[in-house]
Write a structure and sequence with these properties.
There is one protein chain. By secondary structure, this protein is an alpha+beta fold. It is about 35% helix and about 20% strand. The protein has ten helices and 15 strands. It has a five-stranded mixed beta sheet, with helices on one face. It has a four-stranded antiparallel beta sheet with strand order 2-5-10-11, sandwiched between helices. Strands 13-14-12-15 form a four-stranded antiparallel beta sheet. α1 runs parallel beside α3, α1 runs antiparallel to α4 and α7 packs antiparallel against α8. The protein is globular and about 65 Å long. Bound molecules: adenosine-5'-diphosphate and cobalt (II) ion. Cobalt (II) ion binds next to α3.
């Protein structure tokens, strides 16, 4: 498919060239305790993918000639009247080191994801992490930018770092201590591999933010999980990562995914993200593990039907054989990703 790129007017003044930032796959999720500040009800953990496979690329330009702020997402102009986007701009301007004159210049944002947007593959995390980095460069903001990314999308605060990252929920009402910190670089677990199975690449019916809000308001399971299950689990999963203990990591990852979807199903009306193919993948992975001498694979589903599989390098070939047999990819000329079940082999960023 040919992407329609907006023609940006010639740049006057600042020309940032933000580096592409990693895409993102997360697990151990929850809801938010403050919607405006985007403060979560629990800590969370994610692994950041390398930029080669799933990533967002964002360019931001400022010019005294621009009449208004504009944004293009995947080649299409979108409304700037988006509170999350406005939050991000507000946060960045608070810390801007530009002159007042330049600060008042309008900006044009152009971003592209090389993977399905709003389909449960965490495009909001990759997108806002990338935007925060691009804006920080443009406005000469130094230091930690995870708070700026969080203003756009909570999970984006983790995606500004590579490797394994923890988002501490913090306790301050202003959110000042609700920040992400890396717990280990990707090189810590070099044989960890992540496979993304794209079950459905269309836009989800209920956005993550709305679904999570509804779940928090109407599903007691979510609060129970945040208070009674996650505090202990997050320590166990962090320890498993630090020890490179795949079996423990795998069990917690799968349990957490199942419990999150159970909590979403207990919302009223229910939020249903997984479909029949997702459930088939879950069953297949458990059967595969139970007929193996050890746990070889873990699955995790974000707010969408698509599966993220975690496994070790030595087991990739065998698992790909199994997937090709039971869930063959649909043939499609689109080289970016294959429709139906598609497979991207990725490993966390080595940076
Ligand atoms: P996902 O599962 O893909 O994260 P969400 O519902 O959480 O889905 O978020 C999707 C929204 O995130 C999009 O509708 C858009 O507003 C925003 N978004 C996605 N990618 C980008 C990007 N590259 N730049 C800016 N915003 C983005
Ligand atoms: Co999202």
């Amino acid at each position: 498919m040919q992407l329609q790129r907006p023609v940006l007017p010639r740049i006057q003044g600042l020309v940032p060239s933000p580096p592409p930032l990693p895409g993102f796959i997360s697990r151990v999720e929850g809801g938010k305790r403050d919607e405006d500040l985007i403060l979560p009800i629990n800590d969370s953990l994610s692994a950041t993918l390398d930029t080669e496979h799933l990533c967002a690329k964002t360019t931001v330009r400022a010019s005294p000639e621009f009449k208004e702020n504009k944004i293009w997402l995947n080649g299409r102009e979108e409304s700037m009247d988006n509170p999350r986007l406005q939050n991000c701009l507000k946060e960045i301007k608070k810390r801007s080191q530009l002159s007042k004159d330049m600060e008042s210049w309008k900006i044009h944002i152009c971003s592209e994801n090389n993977f399905p947007t709003a389909a449960g593959l965490a495009s909001s995390a990759a997108g806002y992490a990338c935007l925060a980095a691009a804006l920080a460069k443009l406005y000469r903001v130094e230091g930690d930018i995870s708070g700026i990314a969080r203003a756009g999308s909570g999970s984006a605060c983790r995606s500004v770092y590579g490797g394994f990252v923890r988002w501490y929920k913090g306790s301050d009402p202003t959110g000042i201590d609700s920040i992400a910190k890396p717990i280990a670089p990707a090189s810590h677990w070099p044989d960890m591999r992540i496979l993304v199975l794209v079950v459905n690449d269309s836009k989800k019916k209920v956005s993550s933010a709305i679904g999570m809000k509804r779940t928090l308001l109407t599903s007691e399971f979510l609060t129970y999980k945040a208070e009674k299950i996650i505090p202990q689990r997050i320590e166990q999963i962090q320890e498993a990562i630090l020890k490179r203990d795949f079996e423990t990591f795998a069990e917690h990852t799968m349990r957490d995914s199942n419990e999150m979807h159970a909590a979403c199903l207990a919302a009223y009306p229910p939020c249903i993200y997984m479909n029949d193919t997702s459930h088939l993948i879950v069953e297949l992975m458990h059967q595969y593990n139970s007929t193996s001498d050890r746990t070889k694979v873990a699955y995790s589903f974000d707010a969408g039907p698509n599966a993220t599989l975690f496994l070790l390098e030595k087991d990739v070939a065998e698992l790909l054989g199994i997937l090709d047999h039971y869930l063959p990819p649909a043939v499609d000329n689109n080289l970016e990703y294959r429709k139906g079940i598609s497979i991207e082999v990725t490993s966390p960023s080595q940076s």
